[in-house]
Amino acid sequence: MLMQGNTAFENVEATSKLSCDQPLASVFQMSATETVEAGEAICWEGDAAKHLFQIVEGVVRLHRIIGEGRRVITAFQFAGDVVGAFLQGDLLFTAEAVTDCKIRRVSRKTFHDEVSRSDALRPAYINLLCKETAAAHDQMVLLSKKNAEERLCSFILKLALRSESQLKKGLLRLPMNRQDIADYLGLTIETVSRTISKLAAKNIVIPEGRHDLRIVSQSRLVQLSGNSDDFSEKTCHRGSVH
Amino acid sequence: MLMQGNTAFENVEATSKLSCDQPLASVFQMSATETVEAGEAICWEGDAAKHLFQIVEGVVRLHRIIGEGRRVITAFQFAGDVVGAFLQGDLLFTAEAVTDCKIRRVSRKTFHDEVSRSDALRPAYINLLCKETAAAHDQMVLLSKKNAEERLCSFILKLALRSESQLKKGLLRLPMNRQDIADYLGLTIETVSRTISKLAAKNIVIPEGRHDLRIVSQSRLVQLSGNSDDFSEKTCHRGSVH
DNA sequence: CGAGTTATTGACGAGAGTCAAACAACGTGG
DNA sequence: CCACGTTGTTTGACTCTCGTCAATAACTCG
Predict the structure, then answer these.
(1) Alpha-carbon distances of A1 from A5, A37, A58, A98, rounded to whole Å
(2) A137 vs B141: CB contact, 8 Å cut-off?
(3) Residue B65, class by beta-carbon neighbours within 10 Å (0-12 exposed, 13-18 middle, 19+ buried)?
(4) Does B45 score more than 90 pLDDT?
(5) CATH for B146-239, options being 3.65.10.10, 1.10.10.10, 1.20.120.1770, 3.40.47.10
(6) How distant is the Cα of B167 from the closest Cα of chain A, in angstroms?
(7) Interface size between A and B, measured as CB pairs under 8 A
(8) Percent of chain B at pLDDT above 70?
(9) pLDDT 10s digits, B196-217
């Protein structure tokens, strides 16, 4: 498995997220960091959820398999994120490293003890759970009602917004491969590819290698993402997409 | 707006759920019950989430609208369920009564005060949040990878399982109309209708009026729901679906 | 019973999936 | 440093499921 690029990238954000945006980080602070190579699994669907993880560095995908090899990626998690917060009994997903990762782990028991002891941590934990549910609902909307182009635009935007800092002159890194994107967006790899090509033809993004995207027009991405409240413009587009 | 059938039905379960399965019910106990007629809204997407609700009786749908009148139903909620638990700031959905409902409401402040005061309530609240997230993930899988038939079978099964008690000789009540089902499953009303007809042709279910379904073969529903781990049989089906 | 709503069925088309081939990126070894 | 093989991606041709539009049928309730 090869390293998919500059992890120094993620590091920048990791540092800030770990300290500020994520009070729960303190729970993981004393755990040793473990290294996980790209492609390796961190835990498996169906196993008892004995640990929670925090991603210190790198990108992780959470997925479920349903019969005959259909894979659904339910989330990508980035540096600073906590994996497994909402689990009770068994794991509902397999977590795998998309890039080389550094993670910390704590047992579920420790985590819950710490959280229920601390008045500062408890709201942070609740907050995390709420955010996760909200994100899941957004994804349901995407999967339920958006076409391929809207899905891709929404996805690119989400990535772009969460990494504004490292977005140097509109260059966005896509750490995951096309299959991962497809399984996350409920599409096939071919449709993802075609749709990116279509966006490129419209000069909205320019692919640079497999893992980078130059964002030419963020505003057009917003228009095409299907989230716009202003749909006077949108309606026109839909009429003339082909 | 018309009454869509016997609310006494839901009552049976309400009573048991309110007392046993749902410790959070105690928070709502002292609030007066309000009546909401079928079709009426309980709260609106975008408003500040000032209250949480508990459904005492009836069925509620939660939905979001995205541009040009596309509606996504993110969940149906039944007697005993708590609505709005995972909200932080603004409401992310509109809640509407599917049938005539009785609900209780408490302010978010009261709710959170009560919950953080009680060692019994806190785990129940966490548990609720986790369950909601897990449910959202299941729905993501459905929307992401299942075809129309699998979606319908999954839906019918879920309804059937959650109301086993009132499932008299395989008669299942569908309190919602076809449009609601369509918007929940990410399909159109026509596809829902056709798929039910197809299941009827296979003698798996028999529609009786618009709001009742006689379940002839629950096991075939399971097979066709796309959740089966045993997919030797499944694979054959997929090969010969048409 | 009859008007209005909701559901079903049919004909057709479009968007995404499938299968297969060409192509580009990346790492390796000469 | 460049040819090569591997892997991942793009593109093309075709199919199929589901969506759209429209007509008919079944409920529901005054």
Answers:
(1) 12, 8, 14, 10
(2) no
(3) middle
(4) no
(5) 1.10.10.10
(6) 28
(7) 113
(8) 83
(9) 999 999 999 999 999 999 999 9
Q: What DSSP designation does A32 have?
A: P
Domain definitions of chain B by residue range: 7-142, 146-239
Question: Which pLDDT value is given to residue A16?
Answer: 46
User: Does residue B231 belong to the interface with chain A, where contact is any CB pair within 8 Å?
Assistant: yes
At which residue do the structure tokens 């019910």 appear?
A: B25
Residues 6+ apart with CB under 8 A from B78: B10, B13, B55, B59, B60, B162
Amino acid at B232: S
Q: How long, in residues, is chain A?
A: 242
What pLDDT sits at residue B21? 61
Selected residues 87-116 of chain B with any CB under 8 Å from a CB in chain A: 87-88, 92-93, 116
B5 nearest nucleotide via C1' and CA:
D28
Q: Which residue has the higher pLDDT, B121 or B238?
A: B121
Tell me which amino acid residue A193 is: S
Protein CA at A189 to nucleotide C1' at C20, angstroms: 15
The span from the CA of A165 to the CA of A12, in Å, is 8
Q: What are A113-122's contacts with CB under 8 Å, separation 24+? A: A114/A27, A115/A24, A115/A27, A116/B122, A120/A23, A121/A23, A121/A24, A121/A26, A121/A27, A122/B116, A122/B122
**CB contact set of A92 (below 8 Å; sequence gap of 6+):** A45, A64, B134, B137
Confidence label for B9 from pLDDT (cuts 50, 70 and 90): very low
**Secondary-structure class of domain A7-143 per CATH:** mainly beta
In this complex, do B93 and A235 lie within 8 Å of one another by their Cβ atoms? Answer: no
What are A25-78's pLDDT values in tens digits? Answer: 899 999 999 999 999 999 988 888 889 999 999 999 999 998 777 999 999 999
Q: Which residue has the tokens 């755990």?
A: A31
Task: Please state, for a pLDDT cut of 90, what percent of chain B lies above it.
Answer: 60
Taking residue A69's Cβ as centre, other Cβ atoms within 10 Å add up to 7
Question: Rounded mean pLDDT of A220-235?
Answer: 69
CATH dotted code for B7-142: 2.60.120.10
Q: How far apart are CA B64 and CA B69, in angstroms?
A: 10
